[in-house]
Amino acid sequence: MKFGNLLIAGITTGSIYAMFAVCVSVWYRVSNILNLAVGDFAMVGALGVDNLYRVKGLPLPVAIITTLVVVAVFAYLYDQVVLRIAQDGRRPIEGIVITFFFTFALSFFIDGVAKVLFGTDVHAAPTLWGGPALTLGSLNFERAGLLVLACAVIIGGAFWLYIRFTLGGKALEASGENSLGARIVGIDTRQYRRLIFIGTAVIAALFGIVESPITGFTYLSGATISLTGFLAAAYGGFRKPGRALVAGLFIGVLEAMLGGYVSAEYGDTVLYAILAAAILAWPRALGFESAVSG
Amino acid sequence: MNQFLTASARALAWSSAVASSRAARQVPRGGVPSVIVLVAGAIIVLNYGLLYTGSVFVLSACYAIVTAGMAVQIGFSQQIAFSQSVFFGVGAYGVAILNSHLHMSVLLSGVVMVVAAGLIALLLGSVVTRASGLALAVATLMLPLIAVGYVSGTDFLGGPVGSPLNGTLWPGGGSTTLVALGGGLIVVVLLAAVVFIASRILSSDIGLELFVLGVDERTAAALGVRTPRRKLELFVLGCVCAALGGVVYAGTQQFVPETVIDPTTELALLIMLFIGGRRSPIGAVIGALVIQYLQGASNWVSVNILIVEGVLLTVVLLVDPEGLSGIVQTGIAWLRGKSEPASAPADLAAAELAGAELAGAELAGAELAGAELAGAELAGADPPAAAVAPAASAGRESPDEIAGPDARDATLLEVRGVFKEYGGLSVLHDVTLALPGRGLFGLCGPNGAGKSTLLNVIGGSVAPSSGEVIFAGTDITRRPPHERFYQGISRTFQAVHLIKGRTVLDNVAVACLASHTASIVTRIGRSRLDAARAKATRTLADLGMAHLADREVSSLTLETQRMVELARALASSPRLLLLDEPASGLSEEQRQRLATLLVTLADRTCVLLVEHDLALVAQVSERIFVLSGGHLVFDGGPADFRSSPVVNSLLVGS
User: Fold this and answer.
1) In this complex, do A97 and B80 lie within 8 Å of one another by their Cβ atoms?
2) What kind of fold does domain A2-293 have according to CATH?
């Protein structure tokens, strides 16, 4: 049952990628900014809960809620101070490259603060659903993995339903497609940008809390998480949370299979080579052209 | 006639004044920045070379060599490729291996590795630079990830431990002092050379091409920029600079740790570039210095370096997206403004208004000129005619010389049985038409009829699914847009595609570059930008727009922007001019001015005009084509066009 267990492992990692990819692509859809600080919010969530619960001795629910509130407030302030000056002023800063670097800078800042607050060691939030792995025949299901997958499906699905079927979702889409046009027809694009930024930051933090028992986090883990989320979002065409979810799962499974069947050592290297080749072969099909022109 | 003469005389006077003022503030092409780097660098190395400060400076100079290349590739030309850390590693590890295993001297192995890196980049680049924009960024993002996997997995490069060197960059050996100072000086000289080369390229005609490439690849191709080649050259240039940085890093640090190839190195380099000023090589050097000094400060700053870098980057980008170099430039401009007599901003605003009014006057002059032209030609060769007709005066042989007096009748463009499908959707269905060497031809049709697609097929930015495009007797169906441009096909776009952030003169000069056969390297020696600008100045003067030459294009009104775009299309003396809705957004009066100008042009070239304004089309065209749902449904003269039931039901809508 090597294949089955590899598949389970792949889906677990894949749902981690998928979750962050959804956060990246939803906010890109509304703001045309690629958020590379998503992983850092996840890191803050995990290490924040660990710090409050283990070091400060707060009860777990209080620790989780406090951490999420702090993340939300920080995201709100960042939007109010930096993004407002950058985008709502007389000379809005445009272009995917420059805005990209604002989130780079945010990522650096969060990491630096986390280093001061949480130190440099590997920590993780306590497991929310403890106990031995569930088995089904010869297949092993880690409880944390199941929790991650459930979160990915629920939150990804909720975003998909929201964008697809609600008026708010349509307004959100309009904000990203044509910000000026959306504002003319009465959509407060800034409010959507703020709402989704805070929302994805909190979701990322929550996801960090759920996911951290599997991998463990240091103050520098954010960049790696953001990178995987960014990649999965890229292969989902950047604007499509549904496709990002699928792409994340696919990359996770492919990674597990390459690690299991090709080479444990160079599996990732082969994975990246395959991913690069895919972009060069089918840029249009993967949605890169539309992402650029839009 | 008198009015016209006054207008053209004024235009000429203006253009010569512009030319002389331009010549007066001719910027030294890369001389000053590289001399500053050389002198300041040498002073720092000689004074502090043996101290900690000096070692930090030399390290930052190693990174600055990389970031100066990135300023050309990533900042200026907007080709985002994450290949720097990998090629930095290629240079550094290559020197370490050649030096410690094969006992080659550091200097020689450095030369070998830079050449090798150039060849590797050429191979790799010919694959990855097929991608554009984000696809290029994501594809090359895999390079550092792959490289890290390889280096940490193999013992050959020392794995996580790293790779030591036996030799030093300074070839002579000798005392530690001599080795440290000599090595530092070599780095400074190389850095100054890279800054010099980068500045020379950016200030040349190819620099203008690269700027356009960075703004919009498709527009660049339509203006004759050989985009695939430029993209490959940029990739190789960036990689060679990165490898050179790696070589001197290994030579001066005498040790290559695994971290050089880590993706965080790539991030650090990007942050240096964006803090310093993404478009300016000297800015990139400043960025590298600032970041390395902060990191090496060994106080609270370096302890909390992530917070400091995050805040610094945010603040700098908020103040000016062009980074520290942008802030410094603004500051210099502000100081100069202060030293001049007061209320400079008010004067500027007033001048702009006056300029706008003048623009109206000049366009009226151009109209007059058009009217005069007809008379002038009747009367035989008259000097003003030569001054007005762009095709005759803007250099290059006029169509008459090429095709002889029968040019009006000979077929210039033939579109044969062209089909275009997107997925299952048929956009063009069996379109066949032929145009002679001169005259004005209208192309109409409802929205989505395939008009712009047909222009794109002729211009080369869209390949037809089947069918042929024949231009001047040769099959150009598979030729890229830039080749068609140089064969004499020129176009404007439905939405104005001017290059923001550049002057009117430069926007027109893009079409006069004729640099398609040149490579980036040849422009280090000699720039053809001034020649192109002179030609553009003439074209602008011919159209009565000389006074607009120094204006930044986004400050102009829509009509003037469309006129600039037209001027750009005319500057290359095209044989076929494709105009995509040039009148949209213009007032009735402005349309009439445009119509007069178009009629004048049609006397010398073949103009294909896509337009929704049926009255305008019927007024100026000698023959009109109507597309509907991808089918050519009408082909005839203006009289038939007005009375045709097909046209009426399609376009007028009963």
Assistant:
1) yes
2) ABC transporter involved in vitamin B12 uptake, BtuC (1.10.3470)
